[in-house]
Design goal:
It is built from 20 helices and no strands. By secondary structure, the protein is mainly alpha-helical. The protein has 2 domains: 104 residues, Topoisomerase I, Chain A, domain 4; 242 residues, no CATH class. It is globular.
């Protein structure tokens, strides 16, 4: 069922502009060609795309993988700002609900840097380059913080400040990140439900994303042999399939087989998930499961973008595709810099 664009907003114009930008992104063939190059050659190649402005900004002080990574991060922020800039009215309110996750991602980057003892210079050379004015406040928080509690306190004036300010001072990084995830989904779902008009498809997408996060977190917790109390603490409310008694049963499942049995009781398709889970046991780690879920969400966004051309979905699909391109290029250049084989790099890329 198509979702109709209602309310004030430049639906047709914004959709057309996002589709034009989507068409300029790297395709699988071009990415595979770049895989044969080194970091400096990759930098020169992506300069032919939409990254020249940012490469020129950082080329005076950075080179190789550091140059590419800083340029990618800055470019992604610029692209997000420009997309939000050409959205109007109700469309802008819908897209902003989705786009807010990028600010939460920056908050996590700061917390991880503080927790890991990374220098502000290291942070400024990678995910939060200081030539980007949008990163000034983030870097200042990292500069003034020695502990996670310090960083959380410094975030008090942000939209997510309340999510981290009340956490115990001895809380772990995982607990802070879980609090941020919980706060984002609560705020996003609340905004979509109380805006006065239905966004059932986007709500469904966010709820599926919550299910995926819950399943991955529970699988990871089971492999770490965490007790049921800790597993229950990882749960995010608001999922599409796992809710109520089923969600509680999933948290209490004491093995992967028991968890899968709970999932089979939902309307979720589990056959491909079970295949991904088997693959994860063969190779170690949960990458196959995470990749499977990410692929499912991209397919959902692609389908909803095509079925709902005059809606927020073409813009959201473009933003997710842009993020994927940046992630692939970052993985490619970092993998090349540390000497990973093409086979290993390709195995971790998504097309």
């Amino acid at each position: 069922m198509a979702e109709i664009a209602v309310g004030k907003g430049n639906w047709a114009n914004a959709s057309a502009r996002s589709k034009a930008r989507k068409a300029k992104l790297l395709d699988e063939t071009r990415l595979r060609q770049l895989m044969k190059s080194g970091p400096d050659t990759i930098a020169a190649s992506i300069g032919e795309l939409d990254y020249r402005r940012e490469l020129d900004i950082y080329s005076a002080r950075l080179s190789g993988a550091d140059l590419v990574e800083a340029a990618l991060s800055h470019n992604l922020d610029r692209e997000l700002t420009e997309v939000m800039g050409f959205c109007q009215g109700r469309l802008k309110r819908i897209v902003s609900v989705f786009a807010l996750r990028f600010s939460y991602s920056n908050a996590k980057a700061v917390l991880r840097a503080v927790n890991g003892g990374a220098s502000v210079e290291s942070l400024a050379n990678s995910v939060l380059p200081d030539e980007n004015d949008l990163n000034v406040d983030w870097l200042e928080i990292a500069r003034q913080s020695e502990t996670l509690h310090d960083a959380a306190t410094a975030m008090g004036g942000t939209p997510w400040g309340s999510a981290v300010s009340d956490i115990d001072s001895d809380a772990t990084l995982q607990e802070y990140e879980d609090a941020l995830d919980r706060h984002y989904y609560h705020e996003a779902i609340s905004a979509l439900r109380t805006s006065g008009q239905s966004h059932s498809l986007l709500l469904g997408y966010l709820r599926s994303e919550i299910d995926h996060r819950n399943i991955v977190n529970l699988l990871r917790a089971l492999r770490q042999k965490l007790p049921v109390e800790q597993r229950s603490g990882l749960i995010l409310e608001g999922g599409r399939f796992l809710k109520g008694n089923l969600l509680r049963s999933a948290a209490q499942a004491d093995s992967e087989d028991a968890l899968m049995e709970v999932l089979r009781r939902t309307s979720m398709e589990t056959a491909e998930l079970e295949d991904a889970l088997k693959e994860s046991h063969e190779h170690g780690g949960l990458d196959p499961v995470v990749s499977y879920f990410a692929s499912e969400r991209r397919a959902d966004l692609r389908r909803m973008s095509h079925l709902n051309p005059l809606s927020a979905f073409p813009l959201i699909y473009y933003l997710e595709s842009k993020v994927l391109e940046v992630q692939n290029l970052r993985l490619l250049v970092r993998g090349k810099a540390v000497g990973l084989s093409d086979e290993v790099i390709e195995a971790h890329m998504a097309f």
